[in-house]
Amino acid sequence: MSDRDVERDCSVESFVDTLRRLADSLEKKESFRIQVVNKRFTVPGNATLSIEHEAEDGEEELELQLRWKS
Predict the structure, then answer these.
(1) Residue 37 — left, alpha, or beta (φ > 0 → left; ψ -120 to 50 → alpha)?
(2) What 3-state DSSP class applies to 61?
(3) Phi, psi of 27 (to 5 degrees)
(4) Residue 30: CB atoms within 10 Å
(5) SS3 68
């Protein structure tokens, strides 16, 4: 599998909808289907979760991460 590092901007409505669907899936320990920049994939219900905060040069970033083996 090739390396991939993409980012997709989205509207508030789209972001909130995705978070709600993800939260519902996580609570049920079910997999989650999503498409990001022309690639559709499944996040398993047992993915490792983490929250990351970065601050540098007056900018801050918050990432909600899900990790799993493919």
Answers:
(1) left
(2) strand
(3) -60, -35
(4) 11
(5) coil
CA separation for the pair 28, 22 (Å, rounded): 10
Which residue type sits at 45?
G
Q: Torsions phi, psi of 51, nearest 5?
A: -125, 130
Which of 41-53 are b and which e, b meaning 16 or more Cβ less than 10 Å from the residue's Cβ? eebeeebeeeeee
pLDDT of 42 reads 96
Contact 22, 16 (CB under 8 A): no
End-to-end Cα spacing for the chain: 9
Residue-level pLDDT, tens digit, the chain, 70 residues:
468 889 889 999 999 999 999 999 999 999 999 999 999 999 999 999 999 999 999 999 999 999 999 8
